[in-house]
Batch of 3 targets.
Target 1
Amino acid sequence: MTAPERPGDLRPLRNDGLRPLRHDAPHWLRLPPYDWELSPHTGYTRAHWEAVADGMLRAAWRWATPRGALLHLPGRASVSGVRSDGLEGYARTFLAAAFRSAGTHGVEPGAHGVEPGARSADPGASGAGPTGPGLLERYAAGLAAGTRTPGREDTESWPPILGHPGRGQPMVESASVALGLRLTRPWLWDQLEEGVRERAEAWLRGALRHAPAPNNWYLFPLTVAGFLESVGRGDSETAGAIERGLSLLEGWWRGEGWYADGDGRAFDHYNGWALHLYPVLHAHLAHDEALLTRYGPRLREHLACFGLMFGGDGAPLYFGRSLTYRFAAGAAVALGALTGYTPLAPGVSRRLLSGALRYFLDRGALDEEGLLTPGWHGPHDATLQDYSGPASPYWASKCFAALLVPPDDPLWTAPEEAAPGEGPDRALALAAPGLLLQSTGADGLVRLHNHGSDRVRPEAGERHAEEDPLYARFAYSTGTGPTARDNAPDNHLALQLPGRPGEWSARRRIEPLGAASAPDGGWGWAASRHRPVFPPDGPVVPSLWVESVTVVRGRWEVRVHRVVGAPEGTRVRLTGWATAPAPERGPGSGRGPGPGSEPGPGPGRGSERGPGQRGCGTGGLEPLYGLAAAAPLRAPHGTAFARWVRVPALEGEVRGPGPGSVCAALAWLGAAPEAGRVCSAVGADADGVGAGDAGAEAARPVVRVTDGALRVGWPGGGVRLTFDPLTVTPHTGTSTGRTGTSTGTGAPYTVEPG
């Protein structure tokens, strides 16, 4: 039965490239009718969440080994090998099953939709699926079979847990196994024979005895140890693993709700689905009020800004590694609702959670057989890492932590409310991670300007070949993806030294220089510097740096770069947002709608709309100072949002020290500005606001460079940039920055490297 049509229905039109899930969908997924009264933005309720979890499990179990120890999903193997990938299939789906079962106190309605019959020997057979025993019984049988002879090359045995680097992936999966066992203890662990429990403990203790990767991996032994202690099997080894993990976490805390993922400056979605999730959930399950008092407020602080990192269509920001985990981005939101450590109203939390879940389901994240595909909307190789295997996307199961929240909780009973990204235009600076968020309510787009996250280890060198498009770019969004490494980079500033044609620099290690935003969110800025890294065998230029500042207001971005130490004649190339030409958007992409696709009927945004579907398709880049228009660059490898994209570009030349080394451009993502409205670097008054800028277009910033300073102005205010050292000074406005409100000149922000 399909949902009834009604005025304002948010379901997409068939020709906009989306794939709405039907209520008469295949056997692996059966959704209840949408509830537009309770959930006016997404139509989703708790029943939809349960149905999606059931369908995902039903589909995945068709690929289990006879005793259920390994789930060998179809696809390219990860660098860890097929057996490790099979364990990954077991462990990550077990996490979803555990959240689902614990949310109903062990009751398995209809064995989670499993129907009578026998499991087919051929996973590809029509109608095949897991049957007979209940869901947790099958995971119990798999645990018994997998731990019987770890390391043996047979049909069922699990690989042993070893250290990193090498064969360390089973350590990651041990955390999911341990957490699943902890959540389902009364119905699974307590029902096992003692011999099986002893074998499981012996296998899990491998996580306590080998070296993790130097990042969030240290929380996997912590999670294993927490489970062992919860079932009376704790000792000095488990206590040491917990103490070690929490101690390292303290060293990674940077403030403003953010941890670094290890000793470097990697800030990404791992904050929500790992660095906050594991310690807070451990404390919650252990009823450890001391730990909750320490880590709960940090989670609340994280959610205060993280809520703005979802677009009006439900999309999380496409930024950082492991993006194939998709709606796991909502795990921290679910955890906040579960523990009460959240600033978000229940209706906002559910809107974010259901918006993210539905965003991906409507865009091909599940294939025709009900399996999560390795990619973003659908399959997408450039989204993956070498550790990604066929079952890796099932870390998305972490979002089902929402099912731990009781059905009568306001998370499920309060009406949905608009997401933060659907409100007024807003800028939010996060100085600790060096990020600047920019949202526009008219199209629901959220952009992230990166002046602090690089994922370069402190002890590592900077190699051109290791540039990572998921961290190196200056800007990311909920409606566009970075171009692939083998194509021209988007949102990038590159240098080309004299006599080295075609050898453009990369951005690797990022040094944040500061960030601030107006108290009312009206505007903000962030700054950083980096050392341009060139291909090998080229000349080494000492003391070569690029200082960069992004100033945002509304949809506008003024990007300012100062090149220091470059020889005369060095070429500069600045690129903007990668967007698809009109013929390439929509269903032809095979990956859902590209930016600019037309929305379905109805006045709301709703999570069924494509990324930025109300005018996101145009990205613009205009020269302001020191640059001139260049031919757009083609990126045939495309992005996660479109199979073929074009990248706008500007070029210039370093003319020497002082103002000649500064360049500036105006960028935007969203609806195109009025024809003929070009922001100029000349003709501006003392406050940076050009004569004749009136009406709606007056919000468009104007830039002026005089006496070694660069002014970015808009009606009623602006900022003044000076260099040596880099100083950002708000001026003549009602909102002057985080220091408060003023009608005169705001206090300057002076940022000095080191």
Target 2
Amino acid sequence: MRIIPEGCGAWLRAGGVGGWLLAMAAALPQVAGAQVARPPMPIAFKAPPFRATGAPVGAAPVVSGHVDKPTAKTISLSYAPDWRGHLTKTVEAKLSPTGDFRLPLPGFTTAGEARLSYQKEAADLYLTPGDNLHLAFDAAKFDQTLAFTGRGANANTYLAQTAHQAAHDDEARQTPDTQAARLSAADLRQLADAYRQRRLAILQAYAATHPLPAAFVRQQQQAIGYEWASSLLSYYSRQPEARRREGYATVPVGYYDFLPEMQLYTQDSALVRASFQSLLMTYGFTQLNGPDGNLPTGPTAGRRLYQLATDALGDGRVRDVAVGQYLLSKVEYEHADIRPLLADFRAHNHDSTIARTLRQALRAHAALMSGQPAPNFTLQDASGKSVSLSDFKGRVVYLDFWATWCAPCLAEMPASLALRQKFAGRDVVFLYVSLDSKTADWQAYVAAKHTPTPNAVQLHDAAAFNGLAAKAFGVKSIPSYWLIGRDGRLVLSSPPHPSARPASDEALEKALQP
């Protein structure tokens, strides 16, 4: 699991709360085995009065609103997803002296998703042509105060409330994903089924008292199903290494039969929705990877990859997007060398836009593929001494980008220590680069929890993802691991994690060979 800044995951953060849905969720049966903590009641916030303008159906939607106690001068709205769901158009408006704004969306001709952004806050919206949606919030209390009026208010209030409920469920560890690491596959399926039914009941109850577009209700029902499927697909990837070794994470025969039963190959129209794109991304990284969790290798790797994808997703656009997403993410986030798979990609892919995007990514990331010189950087260690990557030429370097706020990073630290101890006295350096923006957080962790060994070096870059080291290595998510050979060239851009033993041991042994 990786932490990705600025969002990259199945749960998209959408601001907003409301007492109705939280009360309804509390009244419904809770997921079995979950410990429930009641959320605090939202802060009351009265939106400024608003009168709808009566825009004609079919006209471009307009989102207007008011920001109370503004902390920034502009607000923006993004829409028009591309083939992998990235929003390609953004309109921006300046706030008036009283905090008001107006955002027309030219070219928005079909009902769909949009994303409102204000500083670091964001909310996912559902808009239809002709909507004249008004929203208001307190800049200091975005989630608690976001409120909607006007045409489209009911759908967007539902989205805001369910996002708040999802965040609460996640924090209270009520979701299938937060409990998967300790469950059997059968128990997870039972939990996921119950959680899905609970969410569908909430949607049904809300729709009974708040008129919603029929298309919106269908899409939300599908989104709940997509997130259910994502939880089931990611079961094994969420299992600790110890449970895998001891056989507690075995996936029974027929576990993945739900996937072809969903007939995803018939759902091309859902490709513009974030929940479906997230499911396809989860599918790729849980079903298309090789046994070691990395890009599949071997002379038949491409053929096997496409056979798997075709069996589950058919041979149409949904499969092309899923495979394209998978390969593109491998290049952009892991800098993997996908060139051995390109012949099969060209033979099966039907979409020239996907092919063009992949070619552009390959050109941009060519310098970070295996065999290329590792980019040099210089940072300071805990004593203030400047240390460069090139200082370790002649030794194998296991490079680890991490941060104290990154739970998956910290979960790898005990295994990283064990790896250091095993390779003590050999020509291997474990180089840790902290991307904490606060130097004090890094220093406190190193002083209290880092076990020093002669083959470990701790460095820090307060510029985090915008720092020279992270930019040089194209780091967009953490933990990010790199294996560098004695000659200063990249051996692996995404080596096995420290906990992935014996694969991590074998990778280091191979790099040490003359």
Target 3
Amino acid sequence: MKYLIETKRDGGNHVQVLKKHKENHYTLAWTFALKGDSAPIVLAEMYNDDCFVIGNWNGWIRIYSISKKELIFEKNYEGKINTRAQISEDKTKLYVSVGRTMTMEIISLIDFSILKTIELSEYVESQFFTLINEEKIIYYEPDSYDDTHGFYVLNPVSEELKFFPVKYPQWDDLEPFNPVINVQQNVGVMPLTDDIEIKKNEEGVSVFVLKIMVFDLDTFEITNIIPIRELSVEHLGYKENDNEKIAEELKTKEDEEEYQEAVAKLINDHIYSIVFDDNGSLWISFRGGIVRNVTLEGTLSPLLATESLNDNDSGVFKHPYFHSRIYKVKEDTIILREHSETYKMPYSKEELKSTQKVIAKKVMSTKPYEIIISTEEEQVIEEHKMVVVDVSDVDLELSYIAALDEIIKLTTAIDDIRSGHVLQFRVKNSNGVEDDEVFFNKAIQVKGGEERIVKIIENFVAYKDSARLYSDYEVTALAHAMYALADTSEKHIDLAIQYLGAIDFDHDVFNRESLLQLLKEKYHKEYGDQIVEKLSQLEFGESWVEDYTENCLV
């Protein structure tokens, strides 16, 4: 298709519709914010030449037309974290598995009618839902017991639901590994959770063997168990002084629960991702930017191991904090992703057949594709997470009062203006564009500005969720407004301390380093006892007092 849909989560969610310009080059066709939605997006996909579906993990489904640039269908299932949706192979239906309701709903992507609602006879884990075909949907049940670990199979036509138990339940209840499914080959793959095999390798060194299991999607019988990596003691942990301790935990089975926790941690710490390529073979990524190709029959390529990361030549097995997963496999390049950053690892078919055990690789940052974006479009994208107040048609001095009045009104309903955990203001006036810090420092100097900023801070302090709002990662929402007030007069000390009590103490940086310092420098001599007394009454009073008295320098 000529369009690619990307979603970004910066505070709230926003969408970028990219139009293909040429191979691996796109222009921005449309961008918009998903107002009121900060939940992770689990579906963002075109289903014809003009329309695409967006769905978050709570089951908020929205369908848009690119040509009309408008929302054409919306339904919020309010499924609480584990709702998932998938488009049928013929692109005419959307299957929605609603978490915590035991409901499956099928929506027509032609006229948006509800084709069918199925009430399931058993509770299923919707976040592990895979549409195989129109007569078969599978749900993985990651239970930790042999008789309840396995797969539910739903026939949406007959509405029959069957359970197939599968051996080797995972021992990690909190973050189980999602099975990887290949519909064309009718198989699934996941890490094998069992007693770790410990053996001597060819050099006589003790190694701990990681394995995967392959299972059939009709019978769910295990068809193969494949050793995929031998870990020597020196490669078990992140830190060298942890290795012997981990090895001992894996060798000793005196406490079954502790042993299972050690095995689950080993698997999760080392197996990062498993994907199928177009030829039906597997690619597995391990901690530290290490990749291996594996066939379903069990043939292993050498380990392709990051030696140099963006010219950081630490050496092979020396990048333990490179937490990359496989993003895409190309004919001669593996694209790795760590958070929002992507990297390329080149390889050749000859290397995959090599008898070498390890092949060192230089890994460099890359972009999966180029996006051509104008300066104006960059500003629009930046403003998705902001509350923009436009008073550019008002005389400059009057514009500050007009903007403050608007912000007072807006902060009486913060739920309607916040972008996820971000509350950040941008004012456009005849001077240009002014963000929080610049705007409030100027506005407080205008007659009538001070009392209006007080009202804004009072609105924020009264908001039920103020502790979760920031203007950026280290600055809490409206921190610059509060600082400007506190810098003006001692009459705002009480409000400053109320503000400190409303924000997130654990993740605050700016106020500890700046606002507390300001209070001490300007007001400690006359009001120090009062400040300490009021700080001590806050939820984290002891810590605020400690920061004020010990860490602030006069």
